[in-house]
Structures are given as structure tokens and as C-alpha cells.
Design brief:
The strands form 6 sheets. Strands 4-3-2-6-14-15 form a 6-stranded mixed beta sheet, with no helix packed on it. The protein contains 17 helices and 19 strands.
């Protein structure tokens, strides 16, 4: 009797709770059979621009067409040779028709396909295009979010590919040395560089709640402990600094000094609060970031971690979420890519309602970090964003990716616009920038495209 009740309970749970996820799984062969009766619906941006649609060849066979080519390749994805991106996560919706019931029955009797529902995304063609072109020929990624709602407006990854020719190029795409199919925005893992000083500063504030503003350090252009010497960028001598100027100047020596005195257990907990090492929200494939510092690690490891080097790794998407929580005053809205699902005539089938995901920090902590990030723009390493028609706050970063040369670096920037009422959050990484294209310049091009 007990086994019978357990079985019935599981069947009930499966039917009520889990069945939708099982049905929607891209691995469920039932979905492929739906394509025999339903013409795959469109994927649209938030302004109604078509990102993917089903067309017919001259002989009447269906094919999937992507009007913007490789600009949306990773986030919209493809629907041949398997599925990726929104073509995968929204597969069930695209192959479900919510047309008027009599119309559906008529087409069934006439052996005609019904038209699948359309997926209206949060993506913005103009912002996506601006980010795509701002990266130029560089490898990297850009994520733009609306912090107040969690809407993802842009998700660019380079190098990219043309989803219209996936079948023809499949062997090359699978063997490409640059991992061209990888969505670097969500699946790429990198040393965070000085953007991680956000985490280090927050931990220092938590350990010194009454006197963190009294912190002082005399920067001589480098710091040495035992046999480890870490220079500031360009061996710049910053002189006397407090926590704010250390952050604005991105002073490695000062943050290494801070890192040596931090409580490792507390540091790990702060990283965890910011979702580092946790499963991230969002209905798409994501890599898991990591905080790689243990209590028995050396002082050199502590110094490297505090300034954003070492073994800690994050994705651009991860850093966008942290930045969005700062912009929001400490809380993160649940990020999402699908705004509406409509039938092919435009009637709403379902709609995503913005909702709070979690508190990542307190309002006071977020306000102080926002002030530090504002100083980065006002007189620090992101001053290229000052004096614009919009206000901005942010944090730059440079992450070494080679053990052989400190000149081989990735460039980072995270930040947001309209400080008093944040509108856009951005996270940018430019791989192998090596002193060339800076991530903050990419961010400026994206911001300028929005405000000018």
C-alpha cells in the first residue's frame, strides 16, 4: 500500500509539476512530430522585427530564415543539426498553434499545417547591432540588460556564424579552433580582472562596516610580499589613497593589500551572495562561475584573487547580474529573453511578468558601490564615459590570460547608465585586446547608439 501511494504521489507530481518541462524539452521526440502538423512560428525582437521565420523554397519545402544573419546567431540560435539558443528554449511555443479552434480544425481536415505561435523577445535590434559592430573583428561578448525589469536587450558573442548556412558549414563549425558555436556571453569563463574588485570592496565593507571609509594606503606602483611582486597597471604610482580612489584608479597594490587581510570564509560567502559558483537564473545554457580561494591558500593567491586574477572565473552574463543588482539598490530582477508569446494573428497567449529574483546585497552596500563606480567614470579608468548626455557608472578590468607575458590581456567593462534611475546595464569582454580595443569603448558605442 505504501509503495502504491508513493507511486501515485509521484505520478501526480509528474503530471502537475514536471510534465510541462518534459514536454518542452528539446530532447523530447514528441516535439519533432509536432513539426509535421505545425509551421514553426516566428521569433521577433521587442519592436516586432523578425529575427527568425519559416519560408518556403520553390518546390514548397520549408526552411528557416534568419534576416540578420550572424548578428543574433548565438542568442536566437538555429533549428537544424539539433537546436540552440531561443530556437531550442522556445521550441515548444514555436511548434504550438493557438490559432482559433475552428481554423485549426479546418486546416487539419484539409491536411494543411497550422501556423505556430510567435515568440516576442526582449532583444533590441538596434542595440544588438551596435554591440555587434562595436566589437569589430575581436573575439568577445556583450550583454545589455534593463535592470528594473530583468529584460535582456542584447546578447552578442564573437566570433559568430551565419545560422542560414549551418547545414553546409556544420563540419567546419564543429571543428573551429575558436569555438565559434560557443555563446561567450553565457558560456565563456574568464578571469574577471579588476571588475572583481567590486566583490573585494564589498567584502572589505562587510568586515569593516564602521570604518571602511577610513581605509588608507600609500601606493608606490607595486606591492611585494615575500617573493611575490604585483605591479599596478603601467607601474603607475597612485600615492595616498582611500577605498574610493583605490577603486577609481583600479589600484592593484591597494587591493592586494586589502586581500591579504580578508577573512576567506567571509569572502567566499560574499561571492556566493553574488551568485558566483551558483546556478544562475535564466532559461538558456550557462556556464558556472567559480570562486577559487581556500583558507590555506598562500598570500600570493589571496593577492591575485583580490585584484581579479588567480583561478577565479566568471562569465560576462554573471558580471551583468552583479552589476544589475548594484544598479537596483541591492536586488536582482529575474532575467529573461521571452517577453510575449502570441498566436500568428497577434493575440497574446502568455506574457512574462517581471519579478524579483533575490537580494544580493543591502541597499546601503549597493549605494556605496554605486558611488565608487561613479568615481571610476568621473575621474578614474572609465573617464571616456564622463561628460555625455547620459550619466554612467562602471568598473574597468584587465585580465592576463598568458603566463608568459603580462601584455597579453582581455579587456573588461561593467556598468550602467542614468545613475539616479538606471536604464541600461552592460557587461563587455574583449578577448586578447592586448592594449588595443578597450571594453569601455565598446560600452560607449552601445550607450551612444541608445541615447543619440
Amino acid at each position: 500500500m505504501g509503495l502504491f501511494l508513493t507511486l501515485m504521489g509521484y505520478i501526480g507530481y509528474f503530471t502537475v509539476v514536471s510534465s510541462k518541462d518534459i514536454i518542452k524539452s528539446p530532447y523530447n521526440p514528441r516535439l519533432d512530430s509536432m513539426a509535421d502538423r505545425v509551421e514553426r512560428g516566428k521569433i521577433l525582437d521587442r519592436n516586432g522585427n523578425v529575427l527568425a521565420k519559416t519560408d518556403l523554397t520553390e518546390d514548397g519545402s520549408e526552411y528557416r530564415y534568419y534576416p540578420y544573419g550572424d548578428i543574433f546567431a548565438h542568442v536566437v540560435g538555429y533549428s537544424v543539426q539539433g537546436k540552440s539558443g531561443l530556437e531550442s528554449t522556445a521550441n515548444f511555443e514555436l511548434l504550438t498553434s493557438n490559432a482559433f479552434i475552428l481554423e485549426k480544425l479546418k486546416k487539419e481536415f484539409q491536411d494543411q499545417k497550422n501556423i505556430g505561435d510567435h515568440v516576442v523577445t526582449t532583444l533590441d535590434v538596434d542595440l544588438q547591432t551596435a554591440a555587434y559592430h562595436a566589437l569589430g573583428d575581436n573575439k568577445g561578448a556583450v550583454v545589455v540588460m534593463e535592470p528594473s525589469t530583468g529584460k535582456i536587450l542584447t546578447m552578442v558573442s564573437k566570433p559568430s556564424f551565419d545560422p542560414n548556412s549551418v547545414i553546409e558549414n556544420w563540419d567546419w563549425l564543429n571543428s573551429d579552433a575558436d569555438s565559434i558555436l560557443l555563446n561567450r556571453a553565457t558560456q565563456g569563463l574568464y578571469a574577471p580582472g579588476s571588475t572583481f574588485k567590486i566583490v573585494t570592496a564589498l567584502e572589505y565593507m562587510r568586515e569593516h562596516p564602521e570604518d571602511y571609509s577610513a581605509y588608507t594606503y600609500e601606493c608606490a606602483g607595486e606591492i611585494t610580499y615575500e617573493d611575490t611582486t604585483i605591479p599596478c597597471a603601467g607601474h603607475n604610482v597612485h600615492g595616498a589613497e582611500d577605498l574610493s580612489s583605490s577603486f577609481a584608479n583600479s589600484c592593484n597594490a591597494s587591493f592586494c593589500n586589502i586581500g591579504m587581510g580578508l577573512n576567506i570564509a567571509g569572502y567566499r560567502n560574499t561571492a556566493k551572495d553574488l551568485l558566483i559558483g551558483s546556478k544562475l537564473p535564466g532559461d538558456f545554457v550557462k556556464a558556472k562561475s567559480s570562486f577559487a580561494l581556500e583558507k590555506n591558500d598562500s598570500m600570493a593567491d589571496r593577492m591575485m584573487t583580490a585584484m581579479g586574477q588567480g583561478e577565479t572565473q566568471v562569465s560576462p552574463y554573471q558580471m551583468a547580474l552583479i552589476t544589475a543588482s548594484i544598479a537596483n539598490g541591492g536586488y536582482l530582477m529575474r532575467p529573461y529573453l521571452i517577453d510575449l508569446v502570441t498566436n500568428y494573428k497577434g493575440s497574446i497567449v502568455s506574457e512574462t511578468t517581471p519579478e524579483k529574483y533575490a537580494d544580493l546585497m543591502t541597499l546601503a552596500e549597493a549605494s556605496q558601490l554605486k558611488a565608487y563606480m561613479t568615481d571610476v567614470v568621473n575621474y578614474g579608468t572609465a573617464s571616456v564615459l564622463s561628460g555625455q548626455s547620459y550619466t554612467a557608472a562602471g568598473k574597468t578590468g584587465t585580465a592576463e590570460y598568458s603566463m608568459e607575458s603580462s601584455d597579453q590581456t582581455h579587456s573588461w567593462f561593467v556598468g550602467f547608465t542614468n545613475i539616479d534611475n538606471p536604464e541600461l546595464v552592460i557587461s563587455v569582454i574583449v578577448e586578447e585586446s592586448n592594449g588595443g580595443l578597450r571594453a569601455v569603448d565598446v560600452a560607449k558605442e552601445v550607450f551612444d547608439s541608445y541615447y543619440y
